[in-house]
Amino acid sequence: MIYCCEEHVDVALDTIVYEEETFPILEKIENTHSLSTTCEYCKNPAVYLVTNERSHT
Questions:
Q1: For a 10 Å CB count at each end of the chain, is N or C smaller?
Q2: Matching NCBIfam families, A to Z (predicted)?
Q3: Does residue 37 fall inside a structural domain?
């Protein structure tokens, strides 16, 4: 599971494909203004969650 910003979404997608050897799932994070989670690549606010399975939220 990778939280990422708009700029790094392609890197996160590639990482899931490479590490998990499966299709990634891209989910837009709602209410990003109230979320304190940051991009794992640059520490900007996260906009997307990239994973290989559906989240349970």
A1: C
A2: CxxH_BA5709
A3: yes
Residue 57 pLDDT greater than 70, yes or no: no
In a domain, 7, yes or no: no
State the Cα angle at 45 between 29 and 3, rounded to 5°. 55
| Contact (CB, 8 A) for 12 and 4 | yes
pTM above 0.85, yes or no: no
- What stretch of H or E contains 47? none
Q: Token pair 């979404």 is at which residue? A: 9
Other residues' Cβ atoms within 10 Å of the Cβ of residue 1: 12
Q: What is the domain range of residue 42?
A: 31-56
Q: What is the pLDDT of residues 3-55, one digit of tens each?
A: 999 999 999 999 999 999 989 999 999 875 566 899 999 999 999 999 987 65
